[in-house]
Design a protein that fits this description.
heterodimer, A: 15 helices, 11 strands, B: alpha+beta, 13 helices, 21% strand, elongated
Chain lengths: 464, 442
């Protein structure tokens, strides 16, 4: 491979600075980007649809906040006049007549949608293997999965086929693929970002967010679309803070609790994480081990609540509209619809749905208790490195196990961020750390993740 | 005639579309009956498109509470919307946003001439689209999809078909007084459903039969009355033969005046209700509720009672005046102006009701009063002349006067008649009578 640096390999911030001081033109950037897409997209299977107007739109956006820079968008965000499939055959030919709030604001801020990225069909999964349009490969090692469900977005960032990407997380779908692809993934608090126009998976936990090359880049993108939206009743009505203002902050005195440190099977990842977290101690933070509620119960909570909501959210694809009937649902969607229908049924909802909501409250209480003692909690984002292609097929609970360490925070609505903390020199695969904070305290996770990233050697863009 | 004596066990479920400007969960125009074309008042939300999210119409919520208060209900200060999951082509999301275990209003009542009917609950939901069936295909019109729909459910307090009809009429009258619903039955703006079963007269008062027949989609009060009567007869016959009527949904055929089976409901339907995660729960303060209560206008029952009291009219009469709000307001104006003009309220009201005077409810009450005065003009009279004429009558009829003075007061009427004839003008008989009495004393 040619080691010469191309403009698509820049971070978002570097590209913005380059355009500002004229050391780079938007045409040069798109020339390199289009070449890279041509070269790699088919192989990695990242974009389901590309926006052929992207460069023209970018040229016209030079006076804006994001200066026409190319942003990849997960294909479950409705985009006016661009096909939106949720990686399901059912929506193969669906072109929305409306724009999601996220992509609307992103474009108004000068972000250009370069293309729509692959995902697990309906965002059901953690591998991107269950996409009806084939799996996405991990650009760090194509024998391996990118994770999911925002696997296409994480891969687009890792392969430099965009400068940043939009993803959505219900329980791990931003942070887990970000971890597996060695990128940064920020899931804001539930309700911080509007869900309008995002094809619903589990409405009570769906959170749009950003996958990018650096913590700084995630903040630059999130700044363009976070905040109240009159079209989403669950969106927080208060104005969002400026997330970029939380960068380069002193973390002296912050108390950081390391959770899930004694889970069986996580000895290696936890040990490496503990070593790396020494960086934070050196910066003046206090890192100690903390005891959190066993994350295994969160799998149950998430599985029951999410399936229930899925069974209802997917009911609209009943064959009357959209041109495809229910036989076009993949196996995973069918499994989830059946399980969700069962758990909501008379006589069973007490045992399942209502009980799951009670356990959800236990997690909320547990986190509330932990956050009295700690400002930020940290654990590995995933139990291990990216799994090999084909791994998800063997286990219907694949995603739940891979996302186990993230689900408790997801069902609690908490903000979290993944940053790389280790890269295996042989496989080139990554481990990621997940920092979480109380509701609406994105400032805390950004502060800590930014400090960690800037003082460790694992970010491949900062340390190239 | 049935062998046994049965008693009706009947509760009503009544749906009414609210006439808010916009739909329940989106900003689309709420005017399904006025729409010139199908599917013109639609958007991603009421079409149930992927990613679209509902926003609750606050006015529709306030109006539902207003209805609840008018029906003497308790109001839940904490409430929420739930998803009712079922498949039907008129339901684009595959679920209807409704209310399950915490309706906005519960435990109220409405009195009828045959006794109190308790209200079980009043809740708010969204209407479905309209299916238009053709021979080999069905079209869907989404103009109605997402229109706010209030459901009023009574307890099984309906004793007979006539009471059901009266309840329905009273309820419609109240909804119209509140100006929250037009209740156009023909178009489906108000839809009636009666749950009907029978028990033996000897059964305990709170006994509920173990079957229930739902008569659905009835579009007039008269038809509801007919449907209940027909069902009572049909079920009584079955019960007499030792059979239990099937638990089912039945429709009503107006042409035959009979109900007919639509679908059996052997197994209870399972709608898999759960709280809609797209809509946060709704909380009210007691002050919020009080504010809504303040906005409730005088309702027909109170209106009739007040007019009756204020103008010394019989309740039977004032009830006829308050059938609708426009009429009530018109007649109240008439009564106020009549009082000012020293016209007998009862007389003018009766004259109007009996169409002795040509008028419209849209006429200026002042003009109607003038019309009445013209028609009943009393000729200008010279009181001194009348007194003289009456004196002459008394002299001419001295025999009658003697009789009167001897205590035979019934001759007074004769004397009044004689006097009127002599005067030969349109004069107030009372005036004549008073003068006569005066003169007879002397």
């Amino acid at each position: 491979m040619d080691n010469k640096m191309t403009f698509n390999q820049l971070t978002l911030k570097e590209a913005l600075d380059g355009l500002a001081d004229a050391s780079l033109t938007i045409e040069e950037l798109y020339r390199d980007l289009n070449l890279a897409i041509k070269e790699k997209n088919q192989f990695y299977n990242i974009y389901l649809n590309l926006n052929d107007q992207a460069e023209q739109q970018a040229v016209l956006a030079q006076d804006t906040q994001l200066k026409g820079l190319p942003i990849a968008v997960k294909d479950n965000f409705c985009t006016k006049n661009l096909p939106t499939t949720a990686s399901s055959r059912i929506l193969e030919n669906f072109i929305p007549q409306y724009e999601s709030t996220v992509t609307d604001r992103l474009q108004k801020a000068g972000g250009v949608i370069i293309g729509k990225t692959n995902l697990d069909a309906w965002a059901h999964g953690s591998s991107t293997e269950t996409s009806d349009f084939g799996p996405t490969l991990n650009p760090r090692n194509p024998q391996h999965l990118p994770g999911g469900s925002s696997g296409g977005s994480a891969a687009a960032v890792a392969a430099d086929l965009c400068l940043a990407a939009i993803g959505s997380e219900t329980a791990g779908s931003i942070r887990q693929p970000a971890a597996w692809c060695g990128t940064v993934g920020l899931k804001p608090s539930y309700g911080r970002v509007s869900r309008f126009g995002v094809i619903a998976m589990a409405s009570s936990t769906d959170s749009p967010g950003v996958i990018a090359k650096t913590v700084e880049d995630t903040c630059l993108v999130l700044d363009t679309f976070a905040g109240p939206d009159p079209r989403d009743a669950t969106c927080k009505p208060e104005v969002a803070p400026k997330f970029t203002s939380f960068l380069d902050q002193d973390i002296k005195g912050l108390k950081i609790g390391m959770i899930y440190h004694d889970l069986k099977g996580l000895e290696e990842t936890n040990e490496k994480l503990a070593q790396e977290l020494a960086i934070l101690s050196q910066l003046g933070a206090r890192v100690e081990k903390a005891e959190a509620l066993d994350p295994h119960y969160a799998i149950g909570v998430y599985t029951v609540v999410q399936r229930a909501e899925v069974s209802s959210n997917l009911a609209r694809f009943d064959g009357v509209r959209y041109g495809k009937d229910r036989s076009f649902f993949g196996d995973e969607a069918k499994r989830r619809i059946m399980l969700g229908t069962f758990t909501l049924s008379k006589g069973y909802s007490e045992q399942y749905y209502n009980l799951a909501q009670k356990v959800r409250t236990l997690y909320l209480n547990d986190f509330a208790k932990l956050f009295k003692k700690y400002d930020v909690l940290v654990s590995p984002s995933s139990p291990g490195f990216a799994k090999k292609l084909g791994a998800s097929a063997s286990s219907p609970m694949f995603g739940e196990l891979e996302d186990m360490l993230l689900e408790a925070s997801s069902v609690s609505g908490l903000p979290g961020i993944n940053v790389p903390y280790y890269q295996n020199p042989d496989s080139q695969l990554f481990l990621g750390a997940n920092f979480i904070a109380p509701m609406w305290r994105e400032d805390l996770v950004i502060k800590v993740a930014d400090a960690f990233e800037k003082n460790s050697k694992w970010n491949t863009w900062r340390n190239r | 005639m049935p062998k046994n004596n049965y008693q009706l066990v009947c509760g009503l479920e009544i749906h009414a579309e609210l006439k808010t400007d916009s739909k329940m969960f989106c900003a689309c125009k709420n005017d399904p009956f006025g729409a010139q074309q199908p599917n013109i008042y639609t958007c991603p939300v009421c079409l149930g498109m992927p990613g679209a999210l509902p926003l609750a119409n606050r006015k529709a919520i306030d109006w539902t509470i207003k209805i609840g208060l008018a029906l003497n209900c308790q109001i839940n200060l904490f409430s929420k919307f739930d998803r009712k999951n079922y498949f039907y082509p008129d339901l684009p999301k595959g679920y209807q946003i409704s209310q399950y275990d915490i309706p906005f209003c519960h435990d109220g009542f409405l009195d009828t001439s045959q006794g109190r009917v308790r209200i079980h609950r009043v809740h708010l939901e969204e209407d479905t689209a309209k299916l238009i069936h053709h021979n080999h295909y069905t079209l869907i019109d989404f103009n109605r999809s997402g229109v706010p729909l209030v459901e009023i459910v009574t307890e099984t307090d309906i004793k007979n078909a006539k009471q059901a009809k009266e309840f329905g009429q009273k309820l419609r009258q109240i909804l119209r007084y509140l100006e929250v619903a037009d209740c156009d039955m023909e178009k489906g703006g108000m839809r009636l459903e009666a749950n009907i079963s029978l028990k033996k007269e000897s059964d305990a008062a709170d006994y509920l039969p173990d079957y229930k027949v739902e008569c659905k989609n009835i579009n007039s009060f008269r038809f509801m009355e007919m449907a209940i009567n027909y069902e009572m007869q049909r079920q009584a016959q079955l019960l007499d033969n030792g059979q239990v009527p099937i638990q089912e949904t039945r429709g009503f055929n107006a042409a035959t005046a009979q109900t007919f089976s639509q679908r059996s409901k052997e197994a209870a339907e399972d709608y898999r209700y759960f709280p809609d995660p797209d809509l946060p729960p709704i909380e009210f303060s007691p002050e919020d509720i009080e504010q809504i209560r303040q906005s409730i206008p005088e309702l027909p029952e109170q209106y009739a009672a007040r007019l009756s009291h204020q103008y010394q009219l019989s309740l039977a009469l004032t009830e006829r005046l308050v059938k609708n709000k426009q009429r009530a307001k018109f007649f109240e104006q008439i009564l106020i102006l009549a009082k000012e003009a020293k016209i007998d309220g009862k007389k003018i009201v009766n004259a109007l009701l009996n169409k002795k005077i040509d008028y419209q409810l849209t006429d200026e009450p002042k003009d109607v009063i003038n019309k009445y005065q013209q028609a009943n003009k009393v000729e200008a009279i010279d009181q001194a002349l009348i007194e003289k004429q009456i004196q002459a009558v008394l002299q001419e009829n001295s025999a009658a006067v003697k009789k009167y003075q001897a205590g035979k007061t019934e001759v007074l009427a004769f004397l009044i008649g004689q006097s009127m004839r002599k005067i030969a003008k349109k004069v107030d008989a009372n005036l004549v009578k008073n003068i006569l009495l005066d003169q007879l004393k002397n």
